[in-house]
């Protein structure tokens, strides 16, 4: 029922890119960067009760609803870093079909394709 | 990686209320009712690749994004029927805070409160 | 290609309820009421180029996307006043399924059911 | 009241580009590609009750609400393939002003401009 | 450029209802209640840089975009507690017309009417 | 309570770019261009009751909710043309965090960064 893992979520989600991402956010606005690190990650994400893989699959679905490609790519990678398989990520994105319809879901699979590096399909 | 459970998702999610819910949808529109049963549930939900509990936690988060209280209540119950604990449902709803903000999340916890039957708080 | 009908759209859409609806809007805010009458109806709706029935079917679909039950009911009635059959209204609402998903569409059919006075199904 | 045309909607909407579009979707995800072809097009779109031109004008309006430029361009072309005039497409997009406001509508007219090949205006 | 007022924003916005509102949120979920108090109010709202009246007028507009009537009522009252006149609140809500369209704005003026206690118009 | 300034809002907001922007809108659709000039600006924006700086800060927040980067940039410039400081614009954008969550707000600060010409951060 609880998540005993002491590793901060942002270490897992961002991996080696964490410092670069945090610097980019801090340059946008130092308060915004602090809110994301201290509140979104170190408070909400690090709260026990749900495992990190489930949190990241939920984050992916919510980013499909928002239509936010760059963040979606970050959290597809984050979900996989937290242990999700490609099949599980596909399953999470396909759950958006009955709730959000096809256009947002198609856009999400474009992001997944880019993440997986399958460059054999022309960009839309 | 696959979901070997042969029980249809809608049997688990709706439980004893399945017939009543399907009849209500069919009365709204027979084609709509058929689309929900045959496509949303028997095709998308029953697709292997992700376990049903994860699908329902994702459904809850997407319903928070849509602001759809009646369906959210149905799928909070569905998530618990599929094995989610109250703590996991709370964790899924709290993941909406960084992605959707507070108003939609507060409304979702009102629905959870009603589902749990905790009538000690006044309705908003 | 143009709509030669000189009847103002709001006469057709609102019918005998026009005065009551306009008074309600004016009481909310006199400027808001004037904007809706002079701009939304007498400028945008009365612009030629597309027939009124098509405009109202589009309005219904957009109100499904917004999740606005009272206005949806007004414009389901408006679409029918402009010549749409019940089958055409159902067809317009079902087009929302692939674009918006099921929850908003189900809510729209609840509004249609109320409009059609089919009280044989329990409210959600 | 019914649409007797036996031509599948996707033949009309996509025309010569159908195979290319379906291959792109299948490459994103084979299940997603199948859902769009078998459910969105061959089930929902091919359902009688509303003519295809009206369905496509509604699709355009819903895509304005979603802010999905690539799909909007596809369905502006689809509406015209189904018999809509440029004036009717403009009328459908302008109906978005009172329901969705100006920013989404302006973005939609940018897509229309690109479709019509009027390259005399600078990109935004 | 900065807001020297040491009074916490939530004291002004909620006034005598603060304790009741916080208790309701805490009963929904203790973490959610703490996030709203410590992050939304004591961190974001109490950050200097913009006066509280402007923050609350912005909050009202954002709540119109979300379609959240109960929170909108709270922040209409909050804007007035922070010094906004009724004319300024009306001006803020009318700014939603060009950006969000009429349906959400009409719903917002219904909330304003209820707040102002003008019961001479029938509810929708 | 009223705004005695006789300068049209669009003169302040658009400054030297007004003619170019209006021509671009007129080329998209002459009716759309007229609606924006005559209704959005000369009717809604020029309505007294709220000062122009507040209107533009509200417009910025609403454009964050819509996820419309080009218009957001126009109205960040408009807010500053109407007297808002950079600190006030940052304060308005940060108010979106509790209401809309982080992804839309981060995208908004990207637009602010581009407007301020701070090219020292890599594009996302």
From TrEMBL, chains A, B, C, D, E, F:
It comes from the Bacteria. SUPFAM superfamilies: AhpD-like (SSF69118). Pfam families: CMD. Residues 31-113 form the Carboxymuconolactone decarboxylase-like domain. This is Carboxymuconolactone decarboxylase family protein. It comes from Deinococcus depolymerans.
């Amino acid at each position: 029922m609880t998540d005993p893992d002491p590793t901060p979520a942002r270490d897992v989600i961002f991996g080696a890119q964490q410092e670069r991402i945090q610097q980019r956010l801090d340059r946008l606005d130092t308060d915004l960067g602090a809110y994301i690190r201290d509140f979104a990650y170190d408070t909400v994400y690090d709260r026990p009760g749900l495992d990190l893989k489930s949190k990241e699959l939920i984050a992916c679905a919510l980013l499909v609803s928002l239509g936010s490609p760059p963040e979606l790519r970050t959290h597809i990678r984050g979900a996989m870093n937290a242990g999700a398989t490609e099949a599980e990520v596909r399953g999470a994105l396909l759950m958006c079909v009955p709730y959000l319809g096809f256009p947002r879901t198609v856009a999400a699979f474009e992001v997944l394709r880019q993440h997986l590096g399958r460059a054999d399909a022309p960009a839309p």
